[in-house]
Amino acid sequence: MDHFSQFLAALARANGLGDKITWHFYPGMLLDSYGKWWDDFGKRPCAHEGVDICFFKEGKKKITPLAKNANIPAMDKGLILNRCKDFLGESLVIAHERIHSGSPKVVFVYSHLEIEKDLVPGCWVEKEQIIARTFDTSKKQSKLLSHLHISCVELMDEIPLDALDWNLFPDREKVNLINPVFI
Ligand SMILES: [Zn+2]
Q1: Domain containing 54: what range?
Q2: Domain termination site, one of 16, 42, 65
Q3: Can you tell me the distance from the alpha carbon of 180 to that of 160, in angstroms, rounded to the nearest whole number?
Q4: How many A from CA of 164 to the centre of ligand 1?
Q5: What's the structural domain count of the chain?
């Protein structure tokens, strides 16, 4: 669980939020939820493939969403394997081998972003390097607030790097989705 909590602390630092905040998660933001946490709070078309990070609270102040274009740091040193479109913005697929050294087939997907232009497959990123900003969802008239989606994906077979995308990640016959909260 250390990696995820350290990542949340890094995300707060990257956005000048200090170390006193707590992050808030509604059930629909968690792995495998069928619930929406936006708009009509209805049902998702398929089980959620990861964790959405958006809301935080400082002391007794009210729960606040991340700003549009919030800075997104890398969880750890890692190699960019792919960069692909998602239904809001773009996703970055990264292998963080120090986090999953025992299982090289685990990849991390950071989604709904506007990614730095020079970050292309084959590039290395450093721990806490700012890799992207959250996608400004108002550009697509989406009722979703700008947020970071993180998936942790265990690949069952050899898959070409350019096929690491959103056609693959929801396919539970080809991938095993690990709960990022417990990494
Ligand atoms: Zn999500």
Answers
A1: 2-65
A2: 65
A3: 23
A4: 17
A5: 2
